[in-house]
Amino acid sequence: MANYTVILSSKARKQLDNLSDHIASPVLIAIADLGEDPRPNGYKKLKGRDGYRIRAGNYRIIYEIFDTELVIDIITVGHRKDIYN
Asked: Nearest-5° angle of CA 10, CA 12, CA 16?
């Protein structure tokens, strides 16, 4: 399988910058792993909006996959209680 390029939106960058290091570390690892496998175990297609989500502890990563360009666009990152609002 080809490697995908992972792109962070400006919103996702700001959200990651606001996380403490011990919380951001597993989130960043999960984001990096998306480049290897954009559909890992546990990923879900979102209902009511475009995109997919994966879990990293209590945090969720919402992203879109563009298979024709081999690009993954990270839309937003946040705590599970806040992410879907």
From this structure: 115
